[in-house]
Amino acid sequence: MNIPVPGKRVLVTGGSRGIGRAVALGLAAGGADVAVCHRQAGPAADSLARELKDIGGDHLVVRADVGRPGDVEDLLGACRDRWGALDAVVCNAGTISHLPFAQLPRAEWDRTLATNLTGTFSVVQGALPLLSPGASLVLIGSKAAAVGVPLRAHYTATKSALTGFARSLCKELGPQGVRVNVLAPGIIDTQELTAEQTRRYESLISLRRLGGPEEIAHVVAFLVSDLSSYLTGETINVDGGT
CA torsion sign, 102 to 107 to 113 to 116? Predict the structure, then answer.
């Protein structure tokens, strides 16, 4: 079941795989026109473009790295040229690595911030002139920001920062009718975990199972839709009770 979002013009960053892919396809199935960016060309992006075409609607699949300001400008320019405005932006693009803090290279810290935090800043700031009245900004955070995860201090720092970013933006953009929320997924099955890792994580979750990308996509669609018209500045945990 897809939440209806007919006619919404939505930009989804990092949409060729996992959560971003499910979000893009779910919004399209709900009637939205979707622009999706991906960092690398390949089968994932190609198949996404085919699936969006099969669903129907006016969709864009653009190669862009949100960590590169020039790519962000080109991405937003493509949205402007196609639609003239955006009704929602879903900032999902992100990177993650697992390194002990004592051995964390400065270059990896900088790379993670450039994509996860500065990339979000660039996309949101660049999108401001395109936002329609009542637009929705959805920032994909992580439950890790609240609980902490060993070997991910750099990743967790970026996701924690999104909470404060959203709280400040909701105050600043609220008078314009623009809503800003963070969606913080728990452990989601993106088929990248071993069987042993899956069992271990399941034991930590109240519902005793991993979440599906489509379960995140449903909540994103709610935040994009007019059903959440009085919801802003919040961090919504979708984590199965982790």
Answer: negative
The Cα–Cα gap between 238 and 140 comes to 11
CB under 8 Å, gap of 24 or more: what pairs does 200-204 form? Answer: 204/242
Please check whether residue 241 lies inside any domain of the structure: no
Which residue numbers are catalytic?
155
Q: Is 2 exposed, middle or buried (0-12, 13-18, 19+ CB in 10 A)?
A: middle
Q: What is the residue range of 17's domain?
A: 9-236
* Residue 99: CATH number of its domain: 3.40.50.720
| CA 166 from centre of chain | 13
Q: Which helix (H) or strand (E) holds 23?
A: helix 18-29
Residue 119's beta-bridge partner residues? Answer: none
Q: Is the pTM of this model over 0.85?
A: yes
Per DSSP bridges, beta strands 60-63 and 33-38 are parallel
Query: In angstroms, what is the C-alpha Rg of the chain?
Result: 17
- Tell me whether residue 82 is in a domain: yes
Q: How far apart are the first and last CA of the chain?
A: 25
Mean pLDDT by 10 residues, the chain (242 residues): 93 96 98 96 94 97 96 98 98 95 97 97 98 97 92 96 97 97 93 84 92 96 98 97 88
Element spanning 200, H or E? helix 195-202
Interatomic CA distance for residues 214 and 100, integer angstroms: 32
